[in-house]
Amino acid sequence: MTDELPPEETLDPADWEALRALGHRMVDDSLDWLRDVRERPVWQPIPDAVRESFRSPAPRTPAAPEAIYREFTERVLPYPMGNVHPRFWGWVIGTGTPLGALADMLAATMNPNCGGADHSGTLVEHQVLDWLKELLGVPMEASGLLVSGGSMANLVGLTVARNVAGGADIRKTGLAGAPGRLVMYASTETHSSVRKAAELLGLGTDGLRLIPVDEEFAVDVAALEHAVAADRAAGLTPVCVIGNAGTVNTGAFDDLDRLADVCSRERLWFHVDGAFGALAALVPEYRGRLEVLARADSVAFDLHKWMYIPYEAGCVLVRHPKEHHDSFAVAPGYLARARGGLAAATVWPSDYGVELSRGFKALKVWMSLQEHGAERYGRLIAQNIAQARYLAALVDAEPELERMAPVPLNIVCFRYVGGGGDLDELNRELLIRLHESGIAVPSSVTLHERSGIRVSITNHRSRRDDFDLLVRETLRLGRELVGGA
Length: 485
Ligand SMILES: *Cc1c(COP(=O)(O)O)cnc(C)c1O
Prior knowledge:
By secondary structure, this protein is of the alpha/beta class. It has 2 domains: 13-43 and 80-97 and 373-485, Aspartate Aminotransferase, domain 1 (Alpha-Beta Complex); 112-371, Aspartate Aminotransferase, domain 2 (3-Layer(aba) Sandwich), CATH 3.40.640.10. The protein is built from 15 helices and 11 strands. The protein has a 7-stranded mixed sheet with strand order 1-7-6-5-4-2-3, with helices on both faces. Helix 6 packs across helix 12. The longest helix has 35 residues, at 362-396. The chain is globular and about 80 Å long. The protein starts with 15 loop residues before the first helix and ends with a helix. The model has no long low-confidence stretch (mean pLDDT 96). Bound molecules: pyridoxal-5'-phosphate. Residues 92, 149-151, 191, 193, 248, 273, 275-276, 302, 314 line the site of pyridoxal-5'-phosphate.
């Protein structure tokens, strides 16, 4: 009988020693690549031939790992996003760290599914969550979850908000069981992921009231209170207020203490989107302002932005563990908990969020927090804030540059105004030239219907002279554009 069975295969290497040699080379090359990042352009356009090379058919037969690695070094590695570079300041994108990258390799080696069960992967995640609560001043009894990023963290927090405020059993009835139309409140400067969450949760964009901001880009709290009162009078059901700890455009803080007061008076859920700003709690100067995080019902923040953890890693903390659990937990037979063994009834992360299967993203956070310690993270975040103030001062000293917004945190918005004509168009072109020259990668911003350049610093490799260079090159390119026009 057995002679008729085909030989069995595995995906393990036939030659472990050959893969070991390749693995060592990969590690060496990776560390060299990170060490020498400053010598390369921040970004470079992908040549057409390279772009075209990604259109080949699906592979059907095996290839040698050495050949695949060569392809990676020739076609993939040379055209990165650039966010590991010291002069990358686009959107809000973190740098990553060498040990973080190695940690991801270790996590992939162990390859646990951190959706649940009793193993070291879930233990590490629980410890990371406890550390983050302690460092951000969120009560230790809060529940939490590591997620892919701020978008997912907002979705998870706002799902609990909706389910609690919906009164009825919304998980069962859907919105049809809610006591009137549900509404959430946030400023016009709020990140688009909150809008996505409102849409996914069935409230629709009409169910997310966008409240105007003041000249500091912070929410107009009185206008928010009026909106709540008007909605109640019209028979709608206000659910929650989303406060910003660092808005994406300018790094503005809403008056979170007043918002917390409004929420406790009006019995509304208080969710804070602190994607990057919440981490400023590690900086003594900002700690007092962020003590209010202890009053939030839920807090969303990223670790891949201002904790410089490699992508992806975000976190949501919820001050009401039972409500958090009851918003997501399901108990089908195939996920039954046992008295002991691997399936023991420990806290299963999948009961606190959308995803069942989950990677071991906790490991890179656990190792990184130990490598640097919270105090050094605080110093690096403070350094980025100081660099933003330094850049703002450089901009303010140049008559050809105009600052577009206050700099309360790590974001500087400005534009070149050294010529006439369409300044929006001039600055859009200037930004493209900064990217294509490989000098620096800021991103764009539109404030009060005017376009400009936005430098957002969540980068542990940037130095003051990088900002000197940015200003020098912006002036050069601006003059070139005005002269050529
Ligand atoms: C980046 C950001 C988000 C979304 O986070 P992702 O990690 O990109 O999903 C939400 N809110 C703010 C203020 C952000 O800056």
